[in-house]
Amino acid sequence: MLNIERIRNDFKILEKITYLDSACTGLTPNEVVESMSDYYYNYNANIGRGAYKIAIKAIRKVEKTKKK
């Protein structure tokens, strides 16, 4: 059975509004936004180009994500 409240909880913007424009723009789940923020704040580096600490961390995160 579809649990609408559980789905709404995955999208922070839906705490404030009812979103009806999904044909034009899809919403981004909280988990994705948090992961993107973590990347930009903690290991923003070129994947596959750098050999320094944060580049290696970024490469490992991407590889782990691809396996998932």
Q: Write down the oligomeric state.
A: single chain
Succession of helices and strands: HHH
Binned, the helix content reads 40-55%
Number of domains: 1
Alpha-carbon distance between the termini?
25 Å
What is the alpha-carbon Rg in Å? Answer: 16 Å
- Low-confidence parts, pLDDT < 50 over ≥5 residues? none
Overall geometry comes to elongated
Q: Average pLDDT, to the nearest integer?
A: 88
Largest sheet: none
Strand content: under 5%
Estimated structural class: mainly alpha
Report the strand count. 0
**SS field, number of helical segments:** 3
Give your account of this protein's structure.
The chain has 68 residues and is mostly helical. The protein is built from three helices and no strands. The chain has helices at 4-9, 30-42, 53-67. The model has no long low-confidence stretch (mean pLDDT 88).
Summarize the helices and strands and which ones pair or pack.
Elements: H1 4-9, H2 30-42, H3 53-67
Tags for this entry?
about 70 residues; mainly alpha; 3 helices; elongated
Offer a quick outline of the entry:
This protein is mostly helical. Helix content is 50%, strand content 0%.
